[in-house]
Amino acid sequence: MTGTKQIRSARGEVLPQEVAAKLNTIPWYNLFTSLPDRPLPPSSQRAHIKTARLVLRPLDLSDLEAFHSLRTQPEVMAKTFRPRVDRDMDETRTLLQSLQPPNDGNSWRFGVFLASTGELIGDGGVYNFDDLWRTGWPELEFMLRKEHWGQGYGKELIPALMEAWFNLPRSGVRKHTLHPNAIGELEPGDELPDNLAIIFDASIDAARKIVDGLTDPKPDYIADWEQIDWREGKEFMEITLAGWLVANPHGLDPYRTETGYLSDRTDVEDNEKE
Fold it and tell me: How many CA atoms lie within 13 A of 170 on its CB side?
């Protein structure tokens, strides 16, 4: 309609008028927390992470063929943000190049390798630190090759990634905007430790079992809910998601600056949601 302002999603798609109207009725609240410093450390400075059976390390260009093989398994890719296999090696290469310095400042992503053989069997981490559109918190994601499903690797992988994320440097307590479903009974202006969100298609029973089985730290279940799907080829359809939050076990006090207390937060910087 001529003269009507278009409303776009956080991913840039123009929303149907009735969807935009519905989303605009949900207020987001300003609270205070301490997220990892930006930009994130470059991949060249990220330590490898070892678990009982896995080695997690930043992906590099030498991993191209193995990464492409992972991303061309339809069963693996069907529930991802881009629910299709990579079209060709060049598409995988472009993604891999985006994970290399100096382009990696908003991504905390690791390849998942078997310690026994060195085989790449998956990847995981915070794929996009700027992608906070669902709850306001960064989201932890992972994928594993289908041949290695059901062998307990997810229960090794997720706690290791969470521990590495929560050990990243943080400086000061700052204002941050959050969806009301992500703050429980807290009020605007309250403080809380930063969280990682784990959100995926609610139909993935295996992923639900993995997350429900985690104990250290134990994720807090938010809900299953329906929302608009923004994924390629599924734009504006409805999808049911399941979500959990994991709070930083270090709390908030270690990250306060000298003026970063509740009564004197002169170090606060706005991180307003546009």
Answer: 24
Structural contact between residues 52 and 156, judged by C-beta atoms closer than 8 angstroms = yes
**Owning domain of residue 136:** 17-265
- What's the burial of 43, exposed, middle or buried (CB within 10 Å: 0-12/13-18/19+)? buried
Domain membership flag for residue 149: yes
pLDDT tens, residue by residue, 107-145? 999 999 999 999 999 999 999 998 898 899 999 999 999
Tell me the pLDDT tens digit for each residue of 143-157: 999 999 999 999 999
Q: What is the CATH number of the domain that holds 228?
A: 3.40.630.30
Q: Are 206 and 54 in contact (CB under 8 A)?
A: no
Q: Are strands 120-126 and 195-201 parallel, antiparallel or unpaired?
A: unpaired
